[in-house]
Amino acid sequence: MAKWLKEIGPHADIVVSTRVRLARNIEGFPFPHILNEEKAEELKKIVMESVISGNSTLQNHFNIISMKDISQIERLNYLEKYLVSPDLIRHSNIGSALINKEETISILINEEDHIRVQCLLPGLQLEKAWDLAQNIDDLIEEKINYSYEEELGYLTACPTNLGTGVRVSVMLHLPALSLTGHINGVLKASGQIGLAVRGIYGEGTDFLGHLYQISNQVTLGITEQEIISNISDVTMQIIQNERSARDKLLHHRKIELEDKVFRSYGILKNARVMSRSEAMQLISDIKLGINLGLIENNNMEILNELTALIQPGCLQKYYAMELSESDRDIKRAQLIREMLG
Asked: What region does 110 belong to: left with phi over 0, alpha with psi -120 to 50, or beta?
């Protein structure tokens, strides 16, 4: 399982993960949506040589995954762990990924852009994630000429990524703001200052398990450090708001909260059939209970792992079989019982 899911990072009671992603393109090649397979293969070799062949320290740290050579279940498994993107899967005939063994760094090739460098860490670690992504980016740029213009910055397939090409996002667990009815105000305020708020798998996805992704939308006319600083400031404010909401729940609605937490715990430990949305909600309740000291339980790492493992692709990968939706619901409940003991 990915290191960012197994380990606990700073502010882990609220911040699940930090992600920094860089979008880059190579001079002399068309963008991937008009790239033929021959040129795509040539570009792939250039990128891989710049990362692996050109740097002995990285040779044993990355696995090479070609999307066309793996099953749809395996593709979903990588997607649900945030190691590849929907665009890379859609471009499976030309798309590839270099993923390090800890599953904290992935380099996507022939996605929406030629190269997407991504770093994913547990908790709130914006500067560290940026440093790791930038180091990989610098290694690639030693061997490759990026498409870059002085006035516009890095050229990208989508104009919204022009400039720095940097997207910084944090995934937040905000159950108390949701339960107290204050979440909409937080989301509205984030949007008003130019940040995007999305579900767990990006634009158009649901806010399952009270999980929210906050990210920058502007990449042009702003520096990388300004982007990181903006996200950091907003995240710390949301953390403060969530902790305040949790404190109010604990002091003013304790019995109601305890009933919700222990009822959820009982269902997870005993249910025989479980949908994904129900499982995500119940796991969220238990995590809140642990964070507030209502449950004496040290299984936060297991609950974080379960958040990924109960997704359709990861679940089928875990049991090494293709499962219908109804069979997934049965296996999901079984896996949860096994992991919670």
From this structure: left
